[in-house]
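Students often ask why we bother encoding 3D structure as a string. The short answer is that it lets us treat folding as translation between two languages. Here is a chain of 286 residues written in the first language.
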Amino acid sequence: MVLIIMLFFIFAAMAALVLAVVPIIVQRGGMAAQANTAKFVAKYDAVLTEDQIKKTRRMMLLAPPILGMLAFLFAPADVRFGAILLGLTLGFVIPRVRLSQLTIQRKRKFSDQLMDALMIMSSSFRGGLSLVQAIEAVVDEMPDPIKQEFGIVLGENKMGVPLDESLNRLYKRVPSPALQQMITAILLARETGGNLALIFGRIINSTRERKKIESSLQTLTVQGKIQAVVMTGLPVLFYLGVSASNPHFFDVMKNSPDGKRMLSACLVLWVLGAVSIWKISALKEV
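And here it is in the second language, the structure alphabet:
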């Protein structure tokens, strides 16, 4: 009887503790989720569309538990714990990689549209329109993302933000050499005067020549990228091929201390070589 009473009080104490702690955990978890959501929206709201932000947030919430559950269900029992950790890690990494890809794609599309926008603005200047009217012409005639970005500049200008500050914010969101030249020309013209139509024409020509050079460089780096793929995959293919034909060929290296050290050194050198080749063959975008 005494044991039953003690168990009852222990259970009641644990229940009271759970009831007291769980609401605090839920509240703090909700506050943390709201803070993370606010940071996420503040960082990417001006970069991605609303639909892309919703899909990415949904992926960030669902990917870790889904991949962790799949690893728990399908991984062998002896490696299940490591597979679950790998699944959770991939669930956190994959949405962020996807987010980076979307951001890069949007910036690249903006850079491709900028030349057309400069031509529209140059024609507007020749027609006697002001700078704000030229930006409005770009917003009216161009699709997203340049329509959205220039629309933000117009909206900030209507709210009383100086045009210089709005243009600098635009460059921080989507930096590109042509945009930097455009903003510099506008700021100098507003300070000292000048023919913006003529200046924009020169920016268009320089941007066109720069794109030709970039296209030539990308063509020339294809050979380097193919070499990077071959040199990176060749050791792995060699190992898989030899192991398939003779499963015990590498047993000496796997089971002896010297062989393990050699395999570790080979793995480190392989990673360093692969990273070096990819760094050399990749064309850095500015």
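Translate back mentally: The two ends are 78 Å apart (CA to CA). Keep this in mind for the problem set.
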